[in-house]
Automatic annotation (TrEMBL):
Organism classification: Bacteria, Bacillati, Bacillota, Bacilli, Bacillales
Identification of the protein by name: Zinc metallopeptidase
Coiled-coil region(s): none
Transmembrane segments: 127-155, 191-217
InterPro entries named among the record's database cross-references: Zn_peptidase_2 (IPR007395)
Species this protein is from: Neobacillus kokaensis
Entry annotated with the keyword Lipid biosynthesis: no
Signal peptide extent: none
Pfam families: Zn_peptidase_2
Record keywords, A-Z: Membrane, Transmembrane, Transmembrane helix
Length: 226
Protein backbone atom coordinates (compact mmCIF):
# COMPACT_ATOMS: atom_id res chain seq x y z
CA UNK A 1 0.00 0.00 0.00
CA UNK A 2 2.78 2.41 0.94
CA UNK A 3 4.62 1.62 -2.29
CA UNK A 4 1.53 2.58 -4.29
CA UNK A 5 1.16 5.79 -2.28
CA UNK A 6 4.77 6.85 -2.77
CA UNK A 7 4.58 5.94 -6.46
CA UNK A 8 1.58 8.28 -6.79
CA UNK A 9 3.21 11.26 -5.05
CA UNK A 10 6.30 10.83 -7.22
CA UNK A 11 4.49 10.24 -10.51
CA UNK A 12 2.00 13.13 -10.23
CA UNK A 13 4.66 15.91 -10.16
CA UNK A 14 6.76 14.05 -12.72
CA UNK A 15 3.82 13.84 -15.11
CA UNK A 16 3.05 17.54 -14.61
CA UNK A 17 6.67 18.51 -15.31
CA UNK A 18 6.76 16.39 -18.46
CA UNK A 19 3.49 17.93 -19.62
CA UNK A 20 4.65 21.53 -19.20
CA UNK A 21 8.02 20.84 -20.86
CA UNK A 22 6.46 19.07 -23.86
CA UNK A 23 3.79 21.75 -24.31
CA UNK A 24 6.34 24.55 -24.03
CA UNK A 25 8.70 22.78 -26.44
CA UNK A 26 5.90 22.44 -28.96
CA UNK A 27 4.66 26.03 -28.90
CA UNK A 28 8.09 27.60 -28.54
CA UNK A 29 8.57 26.42 -32.12
CA UNK A 30 5.38 28.15 -33.31
CA UNK A 31 6.01 31.82 -34.21
CA UNK A 32 3.46 34.36 -33.08
CA UNK A 33 1.63 36.11 -35.90
CA UNK A 34 2.70 39.48 -34.47
CA UNK A 35 6.41 38.45 -34.29
CA UNK A 36 6.83 40.20 -30.95
CA UNK A 37 9.44 38.86 -28.56
CA UNK A 38 8.48 37.94 -25.01
CA UNK A 39 10.24 41.09 -23.82
CA UNK A 40 8.17 43.23 -26.19
CA UNK A 41 4.95 41.52 -25.11
CA UNK A 42 5.79 42.12 -21.47
CA UNK A 43 6.68 45.76 -22.03
CA UNK A 44 3.50 46.31 -24.03
CA UNK A 45 1.30 44.89 -21.25
CA UNK A 46 3.07 46.79 -18.49
CA UNK A 47 2.88 50.10 -20.37
CA UNK A 48 -0.79 49.57 -21.21
CA UNK A 49 -1.49 49.15 -17.50
CA UNK A 50 0.57 52.16 -16.44
CA UNK A 51 3.29 50.03 -14.84
CA UNK A 52 6.19 52.05 -16.22
CA UNK A 53 8.17 51.47 -13.01
CA UNK A 54 8.22 47.70 -13.58
CA UNK A 55 11.28 46.65 -15.56
CA UNK A 56 11.68 43.66 -17.89
CA UNK A 57 14.98 41.81 -17.65
CA UNK A 58 16.55 38.72 -19.15
CA UNK A 59 17.05 36.05 -16.52
CA UNK A 60 19.04 32.84 -16.51
CA UNK A 61 18.06 29.20 -16.79
CA UNK A 62 15.31 27.25 -18.50
CA UNK A 63 11.74 28.32 -17.64
CA UNK A 64 13.04 30.47 -14.80
CA UNK A 65 10.48 33.19 -15.60
CA UNK A 66 9.07 35.04 -12.61
CA UNK A 67 7.94 38.40 -11.26
CA UNK A 68 9.95 39.87 -8.38
CA UNK A 69 7.67 42.15 -6.33
CA UNK A 70 10.59 43.48 -4.28
CA UNK A 71 12.46 44.99 -7.22
CA UNK A 72 9.34 45.38 -9.41
CA UNK A 73 10.93 43.29 -12.15
CA UNK A 74 9.60 40.79 -14.66
CA UNK A 75 12.44 38.36 -15.39
CA UNK A 76 12.15 36.15 -18.44
CA UNK A 77 14.31 33.17 -19.29
CA UNK A 78 16.51 33.78 -22.37
CA UNK A 79 14.30 31.69 -24.65
CA UNK A 80 11.20 33.66 -23.68
CA UNK A 81 12.91 37.05 -23.49
CA UNK A 82 14.15 36.87 -27.07
CA UNK A 83 11.71 34.32 -28.50
CA UNK A 84 8.88 35.40 -30.80
CA UNK A 85 6.81 32.29 -30.23
CA UNK A 86 3.32 31.76 -28.84
CA UNK A 87 4.88 30.15 -25.78
CA UNK A 88 7.13 33.15 -25.14
CA UNK A 89 4.20 35.55 -25.43
CA UNK A 90 2.03 33.45 -23.08
CA UNK A 91 4.71 33.11 -20.40
CA UNK A 92 5.67 36.79 -20.58
CA UNK A 93 2.02 37.80 -20.27
CA UNK A 94 1.55 35.50 -17.28
CA UNK A 95 4.40 37.12 -15.37
CA UNK A 96 2.95 40.53 -16.18
CA UNK A 97 -0.30 39.23 -14.72
CA UNK A 98 1.53 38.95 -11.40
CA UNK A 99 2.81 42.51 -11.77
CA UNK A 100 -0.75 43.72 -12.30
CA UNK A 101 -1.88 41.73 -9.25
CA UNK A 102 0.84 43.40 -7.21
CA UNK A 103 -0.13 46.88 -8.38
CA UNK A 104 -3.80 46.28 -7.54
CA UNK A 105 -3.08 44.67 -4.17
CA UNK A 106 -4.67 41.37 -5.17
CA UNK A 107 -5.74 39.75 -1.89
CA UNK A 108 -4.46 36.23 -2.53
CA UNK A 109 -1.08 37.54 -3.67
CA UNK A 110 -0.74 39.63 -0.51
CA UNK A 111 -1.79 36.66 1.62
CA UNK A 112 0.74 34.40 -0.13
CA UNK A 113 3.51 36.96 0.37
CA UNK A 114 2.66 37.15 4.08
CA UNK A 115 2.88 33.35 4.29
CA UNK A 116 6.37 33.13 2.73
CA UNK A 117 8.46 33.34 5.96
CA UNK A 118 6.11 31.00 7.83
CA UNK A 119 6.00 28.53 4.94
CA UNK A 120 9.79 28.56 4.52
CA UNK A 121 10.32 27.97 8.22
CA UNK A 122 7.66 25.27 8.28
CA UNK A 123 9.05 23.38 5.30
CA UNK A 124 12.59 23.46 6.77
CA UNK A 125 11.71 22.48 10.33
CA UNK A 126 8.59 20.33 9.99
CA UNK A 127 10.25 17.13 8.76
CA UNK A 128 12.87 17.20 11.51
CA UNK A 129 10.15 17.36 14.16
CA UNK A 130 8.00 14.82 12.33
CA UNK A 131 10.76 12.24 12.00
CA UNK A 132 11.83 12.63 15.63
CA UNK A 133 8.20 12.41 16.74
CA UNK A 134 7.59 9.22 14.72
CA UNK A 135 10.79 7.39 15.72
CA UNK A 136 10.60 8.50 19.37
CA UNK A 137 6.87 7.74 19.40
CA UNK A 138 6.30 11.27 20.75
CA UNK A 139 2.89 12.37 19.43
CA UNK A 140 3.22 15.92 20.79
CA UNK A 141 6.35 16.60 18.76
CA UNK A 142 4.75 14.98 15.71
CA UNK A 143 1.73 17.29 16.08
CA UNK A 144 3.98 20.38 16.18
CA UNK A 145 5.71 19.17 13.03
CA UNK A 146 2.36 18.62 11.33
CA UNK A 147 1.25 22.16 12.23
CA UNK A 148 4.44 23.61 10.74
CA UNK A 149 3.93 21.50 7.63
CA UNK A 150 0.32 22.69 7.40
CA UNK A 151 1.60 26.26 6.98
CA UNK A 152 3.69 25.15 4.00
CA UNK A 153 0.71 23.28 2.56
CA UNK A 154 -1.47 26.36 2.98
CA UNK A 155 1.09 28.31 0.96
CA UNK A 156 0.78 25.75 -1.86
CA UNK A 157 -3.01 25.99 -1.81
CA UNK A 158 -3.05 29.81 -1.80
CA UNK A 159 -0.65 29.74 -4.76
CA UNK A 160 -3.35 28.16 -6.95
CA UNK A 161 -5.74 31.15 -7.19
CA UNK A 162 -2.73 33.46 -7.59
CA UNK A 163 -1.45 31.50 -10.59
CA UNK A 164 -4.84 30.92 -12.22
CA UNK A 165 -5.76 34.57 -11.84
CA UNK A 166 -2.44 35.66 -13.37
CA UNK A 167 -3.09 33.38 -16.36
CA UNK A 168 -6.60 34.77 -16.77
CA UNK A 169 -5.26 38.32 -16.71
CA UNK A 170 -2.56 37.30 -19.19
CA UNK A 171 -5.06 36.02 -21.74
CA UNK A 172 -7.19 39.14 -21.40
CA UNK A 173 -4.16 41.34 -22.00
CA UNK A 174 -2.59 39.59 -25.00
CA UNK A 175 -5.92 39.38 -26.81
CA UNK A 176 -7.29 42.85 -26.02
CA UNK A 177 -3.97 44.54 -26.82
CA UNK A 178 -3.50 42.57 -30.04
CA UNK A 179 -0.19 41.12 -28.88
CA UNK A 180 -1.17 37.78 -30.39
CA UNK A 181 -3.70 36.98 -33.10
CA UNK A 182 -7.18 35.90 -31.99
CA UNK A 183 -6.67 32.49 -33.58
CA UNK A 184 -3.62 31.94 -31.35
CA UNK A 185 -5.55 32.32 -28.11
CA UNK A 186 -6.23 28.58 -27.84
CA UNK A 187 -2.54 27.68 -28.21
CA UNK A 188 -1.45 30.32 -25.69
CA UNK A 189 -4.02 29.03 -23.22
CA UNK A 190 -2.64 25.49 -23.61
CA UNK A 191 0.80 26.74 -22.56
CA UNK A 192 -0.59 28.45 -19.46
CA UNK A 193 -2.81 25.49 -18.52
CA UNK A 194 0.14 23.11 -18.74
CA UNK A 195 2.18 25.39 -16.48
CA UNK A 196 -0.70 25.55 -14.00
CA UNK A 197 -0.65 21.76 -13.73
CA UNK A 198 2.68 21.91 -11.91
CA UNK A 199 1.11 24.02 -9.15
CA UNK A 200 -1.94 21.78 -8.95
CA UNK A 201 0.27 18.69 -8.73
CA UNK A 202 2.44 20.25 -6.00
CA UNK A 203 -0.63 21.23 -3.96
CA UNK A 204 -2.23 17.79 -4.38
CA UNK A 205 0.92 15.98 -3.25
CA UNK A 206 1.33 18.33 -0.28
CA UNK A 207 -2.26 17.76 0.86
CA UNK A 208 -1.93 13.97 0.49
CA UNK A 209 1.26 13.94 2.53
CA UNK A 210 -0.31 16.10 5.23
CA UNK A 211 -3.32 13.77 5.45
CA UNK A 212 -1.00 10.75 5.73
CA UNK A 213 0.81 12.35 8.66
CA UNK A 214 -2.47 13.23 10.36
CA UNK A 215 -3.47 9.55 10.10
CA UNK A 216 -0.12 8.53 11.62
CA UNK A 217 -0.67 11.00 14.47
CA UNK A 218 -4.19 9.67 15.06
CA UNK A 219 -2.95 6.10 15.11
CA UNK A 220 -0.13 7.00 17.50
CA UNK A 221 -2.58 8.64 19.89
CA UNK A 222 -4.82 5.57 19.84
CA UNK A 223 -1.91 3.25 20.59
CA UNK A 224 -0.83 5.49 23.47
CA UNK A 225 -4.34 5.34 24.93
CA UNK A 226 -4.32 1.55 24.71
Amino acid sequence: MYLIYFAIIVLIPLWAQMRVKSTFAKYSQVPSATYRSGAEVARGILNANGLFDVSVEEGQGFLSDHYDPRSKTVRLSPQNYHGQSIAAAAVAAHECGHAIQDSEGYAFLRFRSALVPVANFGSNVSWILIMIGIFAHFSGLLLIGILFMAAAVLFQIVTLPVEFNASSRAMDQVVSLGLIANREEREARKVLNAAALTYVAAAAVAVLELLRLVLIFTGMNRSNED
